[in-house]
Amino acid sequence: ITEREVRALLPLQQRWAVGCGGWSLKETVTQRERERMGARDRTCRSAVVAVALVALLAGTAHAYVVPGSFPQEYSLGDNLDVNVNALYSNVTAVTYDFYSFPFCSHEGKARVDESLGEWFLGGRIRGAPFSFTFLKQEDKLTLCEKQIGKKGFAKLREGIDKQYRVRLILDNLPVTRLSVDKFFEMMKEYGKDAVFDTVDDSFSYIGYGIGGKEGNKYWVYNHLTFSVLYNDAEAKTMTKGFYMGEGMAVQTAEDVDTEDMYNIVGFQVLPCSVDKDVLESADFDPQNCSEYPKQYVSAGSNIQYSYSVYYEKSEVTWSQRWEPFLHVRGKPMHWYSFLDSLLIAMLLAILVASILLRTVRGDIARYEQGPGEIEREDTGWKLISGDVFRPPPSPGSLCTYIGAGVQVAACLFISLAFMALGLISPVKRGALMTWILVTYFMLAVLGGYAGVRYHVNITRSKEGWRLLAMRISLFLGGIVIAILTLLNIVLGAAKSTQGIPFLPMFFLFLMWVLLSIPLCFVGGYFASKRDPCDYPVRTNQIPREIVNKPTSIVAHPLFIVFLAGLLPFGVMYVDLYFIFSAMFEHLYYYAFGFLFGMVAITAIVCIEMSIVSTYMILCIEDYRWWWRSFYAGGSVALYFALYGLSYLIFDSGLVGGLSRFVFLCYLSIMSTIVYVSMGSLSFCVAYLFVRKIYAAIKAD
């Protein structure tokens, strides 16, 4: 943050401080008002601190397009490390190691350190068989000559048929077949609505294919022409600020002399299939190699692999180099979806306000008029006040779902908030997944506390809280680890990198056992030390008979419950297409601002539908609202799973039983997470709503 921005914040903070302390100007204030105003003053000052922190974080995040990454300077003659990730395809969810195909081997470093999240995403980064020297042009370098056997040809044929692509990495930039400079020219001409067009028939702009097919004959890309874009390195500065009471002392110093230093801002490739005789001739032009006779491949053929390297000065700055890849697709559609969702939330808010301000308040006013009026109004939710807090069947299972849901919902909310603020970069491979895993395990204390606390309130007893804490810690984590273990066995048999190796899987198990489970017990312990809350009405000894049976399917409680999940799903379904596409088409997803807004609106709609459905169930004199309020939010998972199946069948384009199996495994994990998170949110709101409305009536 700059000195000017720091000074600009000071008047804002002073105005907030005056607004917070302005209540003391009142001449006569009662003790109760003084306490209330003091609490409001503390809340206001806390808000000031929060706003200042968010402003500082947002300003810091805006300083770089890619938060958490820093420019690497290169000078003439420096060696450039080129790495290669696992091969991927848009028509299959199974990835393979680069060196499992009959390509040239790497003589130096074979592995690159990877994060925990990268292991779980199926990435396997290896050293690529290319050697780059900065600003040293290479017209043609021969890598190797490879004889293709029967197994190698079968592997290449499968890779070409399933459209596998190679993902090279240079200075953390993925290789692309697209013109980076052309993209920025289009940005200047068309603005942010410019489209990053591909140079081939596919939409994939990351990496390049391994070959092609003409009739029954297969050919491979055996020559690669690389183009490395660079620009002058920006001067490094370091700013230090110290708060000095009324003023601000700022010291700025030059850090490093960046003369004759450069940043890499683009990594482009032109893959060519060139016959061996043409490749060895003197007339071969690496920069126009797409029109030469192709190098066809068959079992027993010899393939010569080679490459060329060129360096081009570009006007693209280092902070702009990721913009082509993080360009948000379908931005107008995101906006339309966001505005439609906001409209749905506002309409439901009006409906809920009508229920709370007119219907419920009117019911309470009639019930409080006296016995004569109650005799005339012998129906409604007030008549089940003696049974509305009767413990539901299987309260332990309900509280297990609630605890697990609160834990994963808090984890996702915090992670999305950090992503929306730009504090976690999608460019850093596996950073988001690593953050989610660590945050989820750390929030086990919150899940244990919530589950045990609701169990104490529902059962009015503290017995069995240890068993409940164990169930909460084992429930969702056990399901996910069981599905991943099954997936690993199947993918391991297929020799795919999509499976998680033993060491990361064992590390995940240790984090679950040594971190998540103990923290869950810690939260449960503190919850068990609190007494059950006081309900506004007493529970009768004998359960009331449910007299009003639904006469139509529309009035049936289960219909109300499943209808309650339809509107929250309607809010999120547009963004689901982009999420699934990013997951299974291996695209960068950067619309986290839209995603966070969509999740927030979905949560609001879920809260509103929970209140409406719970009130409708109580109005038919049915006090079995506990599980139904959970199902009202959890039913979103049903529509989520149905949408996932429709995407698999109609939109994904995935081929092969193994790819569909991988998709279904991940869909099962995501559906379970949606079920417990939305269900727990719906239940918590319904629980608070029921307590509030029954606290407002005169119970006999």
Written description of the protein model:
- The chain is an alpha+beta fold.
- Strands 4-2-8-9 form a 4-stranded antiparallel sheet, with no helix packed on it. A 4-stranded mixed sheet has the order 6-18-13-16, with no helix packed on it.
- It starts with a helix and ends in a 5-residue tail after the last helix.
- The chain is built from 19 helices and 18 strands.
- α11 (444-459) packs across α12 and α14 (557-564) runs antiparallel to α16 (592-619).
- The longest helix has 39 residues, at 657-695.
SSE layout:
Elements: H1 3-21, H2 31-63, E1 79-80, E2 82-84, E3 88-89, H3 116-120, E4 126-127, E5 132-133, E6 138-147, H4 150-161, E7 164-166, E8 168-170, E9 173-174, H5 180-190, E10 208-209, E11 211-214, E12 217-220, E13 223-232, E14 237-244, E15 247-254, E16 262-272, H6 276-279, E17 296-297, E18 302-313, H7 331-367, H8 371-376, H9 395-420, H10 431-442, H11 444-459, H12 465-493, H13 502-528, H14 557-564, H15 566-584, H16 592-619, H17 626-634, H18 636-651, H19 657-695
Parallel strand pairs: 13-18
Antiparallel strand pairs: 1-5, 2-4, 2-8, 3-7, 6-18, 7-10, 8-9, 11-12, 12-17, 13-16, 14-15
Helix pairs in contact: 1-2, 7-15, 7-16, 9-10, 9-11, 9-12, 9-16, 9-19, 10-13, 11-12, 11-13, 12-13, 12-19, 14-16, 14-17, 15-16, 15-18, 16-17, 16-19, 17-19, 18-19
